[in-house]
Amino acid sequence: MFKISLTELEEVRRDPVAYKKKRDGGAGFYPRKSVFLTLKRAIYEYHKNTDALVAMNYLEDGLESFKSRASCEKAVEDLQWYITEYQKLGWATFLKKHNISIPLSTHYLDSLKVTGEIGRIDMHPNGTYAAWLFNKGAVGDWQNELRMPIIQNAIGVELGAPPVMIHVGIYCFEDHTVNIHNFTNNDIRRAHLEMEALFRKMGF
Fold first, then answer.
1. % of the chain residues with pLDDT over 70
2. Were both Cys, which of 18, 51, 133, 147 would link to 6 (CB 3.0–4.6 Å)?
3. Which residues have a Cβ under 8 Å from the Cβ of 46 and sit 6 or more positions away?
4. How far apart are CA 168 and CA 57, in angstroms?
5. Do 52 and 83 contact (CB within 8 A), yes or no?
6. Average pLDDT, stretch 31-59?
7. How many CA atoms lie within 13 A of 72 on its CB side?
């Protein structure tokens, strides 16, 4: 079965044929040890018991193997910023480091799988949900990324909630911004149609 990471959908979008050729040649998405991955693990450690000191100690221990002091100092600042923003928000978190599989039409069930990781899922005090992603870079044009409405729909399917009840948010660690959005049913429909058009261009 051919597997695509949600983080690779923009690459697929730019040139689906080249992406398929690259993957057929053995290349793929393999997370490597990095400062940002270490930061994310420290964030998940924080969410185990919301203990900032434990999370910071975990991060500093994990950063000892990296040579770039500037990158390590930035990661410490990033963790402090994230915890401050999370506490300021004050929403209840019930899932962290949550893996999802995107619902596809029956035509692709035996040939394709699209998966990804959601940083955390919160419940808003008004009863709606927020699925948060952690992004290493700056905010950019994130609302136009193909994966965003697709993630909103997938979380809704998983939780048994209509898309209007789900928001997709993003923490951007490069420029320390937090954004959240709710996509319409039409946005979701267009995203899934575009994704399936990309599948066809890849030969599926």
1. 98
2. 147
3. 52, 54, 55, 79, 82, 83
4. 30
5. yes
6. 94
7. 14
